[in-house]
Amino acid sequence: MAKDESAEVREEVQLHDFKNIFSLERKVAVVTGGSRGLGLHTASGFLQSGCSLVFITSRKAGACESAVKALNALPNKSSGAKAISVPADISKVEGVVYLVEEVKKHTDHVDILFANAGATWGASFDKHPDSAFGKVMDLNVKSVFNCVQKFAPLLSKNATVDEPSRVLTTASVAGLGIGSVGTENSTPAYSASKAAVIHLTRNLAIELGPRHILCNSIAPGFFPTKMTNELMRLSGGRKALEEANPNGRLGLPEDIAALAVFLCGRGSGHINGETVAIDGGKLWARAKL
Asked: So what family is this one in (predicted)?
């Protein structure tokens, strides 16, 4: 039987406005561990994507000032946008409280908190000191909770269902799989701390979702940074690591910055409690038979 097209119900094609789907225009961000490495790359991405204020914090005042100077010299940030240095030791809750109070001198709200500060410690299993385990867990896990807890009032200030605030945490593929083991540079504390951060972020997502604060974690593989350079050397060097990666390379600054910008923008408004691995597929290459 011939199809009666006149009897068909014709639906009008509707297109949605995706303008500024990756824009962070006028957003206020705080980046811990933002003076170098992944934090600095991400802070740069935030400013270049429209953020009006980006607060940079780390323990070393000189490093913060150098980072802010470089960020404020970016040629393609929005007019009037600026980075602000707030040195603080956030491994202690007093340092987190100080950071919040300093931020409040400049703004009454925060849209993005990137809890990125972290540390690692390499030693053989038999020689791994208790003090090192405590130091890594304090900065990589406890300080993340303290930062989110103390910044929650500022994060919820302007947050709505349609315009939620964001919390990003830095995990690691070492928290999804296994970190360095069986060597003189084993990292049990780091691996355990990053697994804890992933699960902490899931808890925060459910806790803070009703306050219109979305929480997700990023799990990087090897990115050439000051913190990873020694482990990369002990793991065979950059060239060997690149060749062993299905993607044929290691992480680049724009990789981490682009992912963070996406997770903090309009396009990720329904992503909450997730962990995104960014390692070129290396985690799964380790698991192949």
From this structure: Belongs to the short-chain dehydrogenases/reductases (SDR) family.
pLDDT digits (tens, 9 = 90+) for 136-177: 999 999 999 999 999 999 999 999 999 999 999 999 999 998
Residue 263, token pair as written in the block: 């997770």
Residue 266: count of CB within 10 angstroms of its CB: 16
Q: Tell me the β-bridge partners of 168.
A: 114, 216
Q: Is 98 a catalytic residue?
A: no
> Which domains are seen in the chain, by residue range?
22-287 (3.40.50.720)
What are the φ and ψ backbone dihedral angles of 72, each rounded to 5 degrees? -75, -10
Helix H or strand E segment including 31: strand 28-32
Q: Residues 190, 215, 223, 265: which is the catalytic one?
A: 190
- CB of 215 closer than 8 Å to CB of 272: yes
Question: Closest Cα to residue 29, out of 7, 14, 8, 44?
Answer: 44
Q: What is the pTM of this model?
A: 0.89
